[in-house]
Amino acid sequence: MSISSVHPPLSNVQAELLKVFSADIPDSDLAELKHLMARFLLDRARDKADAVWDENGYTDEKLQQVFQRN
Q1: pLDDT > 90 fraction of the chain, expressed in percent and rounded
Q2: How far is the C-alpha of 26 from the C-alpha of 9, rounded, in Å?
Q3: How many CB atoms lie within 10 A of CB 53?
Q4: What is the secondary structure of 2-70 as a DSSP string?
Q5: CA distance 36 to 42
Q6: Which residue has the higher pLDDT, 9 or 44?
Q7: pTM of this structure
């Protein structure tokens, strides 16, 4: 049975990761790479959250008010 579907091309991130993962690296290096990628994504998420916080004029006091209502 043949299943035909259209797959978009790889993103630039996917292509780079395939290059990295095509090499046989030690498990310890793989663990470190996973940690670095997780840290990178966490930093980006924090930056975005900080920007939303600033754009909306949130303060610690406003946050406390929200928690006190619930």
Answers
A1: 46
A2: 29
A3: 13
A4: ------PPPPHHHHHHHHHHTS---HHHHHHHHHHHHHHHHHHHHHHHHHHHHHTT--HHHHHHHHHH-
A5: 10
A6: 44
A7: 0.64
Q: Tokens 């998420």 map to which residue? A: 45
Q: What's the rounded Cα separation, in Å, for the pair 57 and 22? A: 46
Q: Which residue has the tokens 């004029």?
A: 57
Rounded average pLDDT over 43-63: 95
Determine the average pLDDT of the residues in 39-51: 97
**Residue 30 CB coordination number (10 Å):** 13
Hunting for tokens 């310890």 — which residue is that? 28
Residue with tokens 């840290």: 39
Average pLDDT, the chain: 87
